[in-house]
Amino acid sequence: MSAAPTTPELDLSWLDLYDDPTSAEPTKKGLTLDAIDIGDYASAEDLPRDMTPRLRGAASRENAHRMGLTYQTKHDVWADQCRSLYEEAIQRQWSSARDIPWDTLTELPDEKERAICQVATMLTEVEFIAGDVPGQWLPHISGDEFEVGLFLMTQIMDEARHTDVFRKRALANGGGLLQQGAGLGLRNLIEAQDFTEMSVLMHVQAEGFVQSMFRMGELIGPTQADKRIFRMAAQDESRHLAFGVMHLKHILSETPERREEIHHYLDKAEERSAGGGSGDVTFPPVFESLCILLGGGKDRFDEGVAKFLLLRRRQVKEYLHRLEVAGLGDRSERLGPALAQYAN
Amino acid sequence: MARDGAATEGPITAEMRAAAEALGWDDGLLDRALDYGYSPRTLVSALGTKLAPSQAKSFLDREPLKPDLSWMDAPTEWGVRAEQADPEMGLTVGDILVGSYGEIPELWTDRTEIARGSNPQEGQEDMGYTIFEKAVVWADSVSDLYERAIRDRWAPATDLGWRSLEALPDDIEHAICQVMTEHSERAYAEATVLGRWLPEVSYGYLEMKLFMGSVIYDLARHAEAFRKRALSNGGGLGLQAPTDLIRGASEARTYPELMAYLFVQDSAFLTFFRHAGDIAQNQLERDLYALVASDRERLMEYHVDRFDAFLKAMPDRRLEQQRYLAKAEVRLAREWDDPAVREPLLLLLGGSRDNAAEGEAALHALRRRQVEEYLGHLDSVGFIRSRLHSGLAAYLEDPEEASA
Ligand SMILES: [Fe+2]
Ligand SMILES: [Fe+2]
Q1: Which of B96, B201, B325, B370 could crosslink A171 through cysteines, CB 3.0-4.6 Å?
Q2: Helices marked H in B113-205 — which ranges?
Q3: From ligand 2's centre to the CA of A148, what distance in Å?
Q4: In the 8-state DSSP scheme, what is residue A342?
Q5: What is the ipTM of this complex?
Q6: Mean pLDDT for chain B overall
Q7: At B58, is the pLDDT very low, low, confident or very high (cuts 50, 70, 90)?
Q8: Which CATH class is domain B134-403?
Q9: Cα(A207)–Cα(A200) distance, rounded to whole angstroms?
Q10: The model's pTM
Q11: Fold classification of A77-340 (topology level)
């Protein structure tokens, strides 16, 4: 028979840790992460980081286990506004089941249904990896920058929804999935060996290209439901992009000596695929389906190609603009050839 | 039908010519394009997209591209029209499990990023997934759990009555802060451990990954909400949580080990939050614990369903699971004895430090419930725990009996 739990003397030393009484005030947006970033609990550069699961501001246990290597400086992972991006993510969650007007789907000409299903097949594939990558990096973020971890956790949720909404679209209107079509370049994202490398390739480059495409969703989507899917997904992508741009800006201002290294990651990604890690839109099934949707049918394919070129130009122009905002404006002078042709 | 110099006539208008000139396009390009078979409409589009001269030349100065379109005949299932089973829920992931798209393979063999049900493209890269067996990750409830998670989402910043908080006696406030510190860290760390397993699971089991994404999202909000409570009412953060339990989770070498291990902790945490109304000092805390418990119900449902399916599919691995459960039980029992875990609960259940004895009885009852419900969860899948760790078994005895 086991012994019953004994009743140790009360230790109560844990009661003596509160010399800085803290009362965060709710704001108009409720009690936000910014509102609790105060006093001893505020984010700071020079905190001792201990690699245990301790979150910033909690008192350390002497015997706490380390849990593996984490970054030891704030700027390695930080993005200004990650707290408000997190709160925005929570407030702007949507449901692919209920917030898309699925009942507006109408029977489309076969070629158009096939084209949107091909685009959806590519996108559900691309979105799938965008959830894996943040997951891979969570263990390397110190609890002193837990807000970054929280933001990435919202991204995992967002990308799950994107994966599911494009799959739903392919299976909702008399179509199906078609040809696998995104592999090129996706490996870049999961191959990253550094947080900044991951963020610049995924958040800024890959999600940037995807975002430029989603923003043309009004032209691509043949039905109201399709247009709405692109709009809602674009709203989420703009947070992921903002995180990446802010992180890049932060790292370039804190550690300007990393500039060439960052260019080098972009060199690798730009040479490997025309779409970076966003899937390759020049891959024939994707290219052709987009041209059919943009042109309005396969008998207007050449018109679609003209608009496709516009999409490519937009992707590259916006990519360069985002890099410029982050402080990497000189990228325009060394863009990979697959992108440079669209850069004028 | 070459066009002559009467350029402003016919399908190419003067505006088009002016636009082409402004863009620096080759003289005569528009006419040649028309000859090649481009429609005037396409020329207007090309002008509208402001193609650079070199692009305009490479695009328009040859026969129009003829699409191959072979992807339209990809040998996949076509003609699928998923129906909403429950209009209240909308078009769910469960609704699109139709035809071949609803077949979850026992073994998934494609190593690329391919979406299950699409037609494989030859020559794609191996993405490095390691989990290709349904029995390891799958539970039939995942699609439903995922949609429920989305439907029942809540926002800590705005769904809790932060302005309703009133000052509490110092000991009590600090005891709450200690509980919040502990559970904020536990939730965050668990999400971190789960996140690192996402890249292991192949697209064959997509729906399970969707659900796991929602679990990580839930845990993020729990970490956030507990921290906010600690910092909003004159307290602060206390001592970090003990690290034995979470360390064991991060030590797991395989997904089934991780899940068996977390089964113990997640069952115990679910029971704790279900009954945490007993330690709540105000409505905000009651609401918070109830919301956390309802999120954790989904996670536990997954654990139970997955474990059940796993044991049925891999009966030879039954004995092995005893080890992972045992490892977690030892650590859970140890953490329950940690002063910073145990004493805040004694204070909150007893009402003050002078009333810790009353708190002791209540805590014993809570721990007993946690152990009983844990065994109940195992029981529901027909799993008999060979030797429950003594540190947990002790709570199944009456306190008087035990101290006699
Ligand atoms: Fe996405
Ligand atoms: Fe994204």
Answers
A1: B96
A2: 134-137, 142-151, 156-159, 170-195
A3: 15
A4: T
A5: 0.96
A6: 94
A7: confident
A8: mainly alpha
A9: 10
A10: 0.95
A11: Ribonucleotide Reductase, subunit A (1.10.620)
Which residues, in sequence order, are bridge partners of residue A30? A27
- Partner residue opposite B184 with nearest CB, options A55, A64, A95: A55
- Cβ contact (<8 Å) for B68 and A288? yes
Distance of CA A2 to the CA centre of its chain: 51
What residues of chain A lie within 8 A of the CB of B170, using their CB? 18
> Closest Cα of chain B to A341: distance in Å?
8
Residue in chain A lying closest to B50 (CA): A310
Token pair of B256 as six digits? 């089934």
Cβ <8 Å between A183 and B150: no
Per-residue pLDDT of B99-149, as tens digits, reads: 999 999 999 999 999 999 999 998 888 999 999 999 999 999 999 999 999
**CATH 1.10.620.20 domain residues, chain B:** 134-403
Lowest mean pLDDT among B44-58, B140-154, B165-179: B44-58
Domain ranges of chain A: 77-340
Q: Considering Cα of B330, then B333, then B334, then B335, what sign does the dihedral take? A: positive
Q: Running DSSP on this structure, what letter comes out for residue B6? A: -
Q: Is A31 on the interface with B (CB under 8 A)?
A: yes
Burial environment of residue A7 by CB neighbours within 10 A (0 to 12, 13 to 18, 19 or more): middle
Contact B261, B324 (CB under 8 A): yes
Return the residue matching tokens 């012994």. Answer: A3
Closest CA to A212 of A310, A90, A67, A110: A310
| For B46, nearest residue in chain A (alpha carbons) | A306
Contact B319, B392 (CB under 8 A): no
- Is residue B239 within 8 Å of residue B337, measured between CB atoms? no
User: Cβ of B115 and A128 within 8 Å?
Assistant: yes
3-state secondary structure at position A26:
coil
For the cut 50, the answer to whether the pLDDT of residue B3 exceeds it is: no
Rg from Cα positions in chain B:
31
